[in-house]
Amino acid sequence: MNKYIRLILAVSLIILVPCSVTAGPYLSWFRILGSGDYGGSGDLSNSDADLFQNLMTGNLSYNLENRFDDGNISKKSFSPNSEVGFLYFTGHGSNGTAHFLNGQLSSTEFSGKNVTHMMFASCLTVQPLWKSHGCFDNGTKTVLGYHKVSYDAPVDDDIVGKFIGNITNLDPLGDPGKFVEAWKKANTSYSADMGSRWSAAVKGQYFSAGTSDDSSDDTSEDEWWDDWFGAASSDSANQTRLQNPVFIEPEVCYSFQASKANQAVSLVQVTGSPSGKSIRLNSGRAATKSSSSAANGAYIEFPDSIEPVAFSAQEAYGRILEFLAVNSQELPSDAELFRTVPIYLEDESGARTIINFYLIFKRVIDGRLAAGASGDGISFLVGSEGVISCTWLWRDIDIQGPDKAENRLDPVAALTNASSEISRITKGTDTVHIVACSAGYFSPSYKQGGTVAYVPCWHFLTADGYIFHADMKTGKLLF
Predict the structure, then answer these.
(1) What is the pLDDT tens value at each position of the chain, 479 positions in all?
(2) Which residue of 44, 191, 278, 350 sits 20 to 30 Å from the alpha carbon of 295, by its own alpha carbon?
(3) Where do the structural domains in the chain lie, given as residue ranges?
(4) CATH class of this structure's domain 25-209
């Protein structure tokens, strides 16, 4: 055969034979279920669904397979006819169940067929029962969500952004543990509140952050309540759920001493933008590159394996100090340990082991807590090999002297003003119980540029450990 004919045939074969590709319909499609309409009672925003769609299509080049909103959602909506990489539901939830306008889907009714990663941005939906769910035999790799109450915009919007940033280079068909890590770090990098509420399930395993059931365990979180709020009412703490949950605007109840009202606090001005320190881990990868990337969780470590930690919460604190010393860093002088949260892995038998400690540091000014969900703070995730993640956002401040205690609302009046907004953003159907409060400062969001003030506020603690912040002068809920 003529060599030129052979060359033409070879080129033709190269052109005609399909190339092996790593992306296809299974990897690149997603579905959204946005449940914001509940008939005017307990309505939510679908802005997180909009953001999920925009970021998945714009940043990750995924394709929207279908989207159902509000009254168009049914049980069938959770079962796509073709394979999708992600199914994102946002709305109300209860124990193992997702609620929408015209019904609800219990965990037993979810087949998992054609869904690789199921995401529930809803209260209380992802409970331990999911680890033994049949969906994992039908192709589902992860179920991501919350085991406690979760919250509407702007909270869930920010977490969506962080999560999608974290999965940018992940293969949906790859290690499901990487997606658990991405979800964990999206929540822990947002706030201590959300970092203690997330949960996830893969086949035979359940991951969650929160308090140990063992009162003798030194990871018990009860002490942090006492440190910042005094002893909370144990009676109220046992009334976090209604006997028969229904879809009503959650009632805001409170049981605390209305003291410390109208006390003078210092005027505090923020004089610099958040300091996003570039702290490098032993692997050489940056845990935090800048204030922007830190806030969005752009730099995270994915451990090669998940191993139980063989040390206590106190020893985890020591590992952090060692990590900072090795990297020529130290904690700011006005930073205090705010909270330590154990992160658990539960196997099919129900046995739980701690795989991470999540330690959060907050600023204290004149003995008062300065806190805000996306404001100044430093947090660390500590695993079996030491620190695996760090978020560092810390601004310079200028204390300008005591402020006059005029026109300040007492905590009851402030809570009354904030109650409708608290009801709006709560994604649960149960009563919201405020069990304690303390006077302090609201640390402004890192998104705010220029010179801003630390607003004097009331910190309100719920029975399940979430903190709301309300402006002392207006009662406006602060984010």
Answers:
(1) 443 333 333 333 333 333 322 344 446 899 999 999 998 778 999 999 999 999 999 999 999 999 999 999 999 999 999 999 999 999 999 989 999 999 999 999 999 999 999 999 999 999 999 999 999 999 999 999 999 999 988 899 999 999 999 898 889 999 999 999 999 989 988 888 899 999 999 999 999 997 544 333 444 444 666 677 764 433 333 222 222 222 223 345 544 444 333 344 555 555 444 444 444 444 333 333 333 333 333 334 566 677 889 999 999 999 999 988 887 788 988 899 998 999 999 999 999 999 999 999 998 887 888 888 777 888 899 998 888 888 887 877 777 666 666 678 888 888 889 988 888 888 876 778 887 888 888 887 766 666 667 888 888 888 888 899 999 889 999 98
(2) 44
(3) 25-209, 223-267+401-471, 277-394
(4) alpha beta
Residue 289, helix vs strand vs coil: coil
The model's pTM is 0.79
- Residue by residue, DSSP assigns 369-434 as EEE-TTSSEEEEEEETTEEEEEEEEB--EEEEEEPP--SPPPHHHHHHHHHHHHHHHB-SSSPEEE
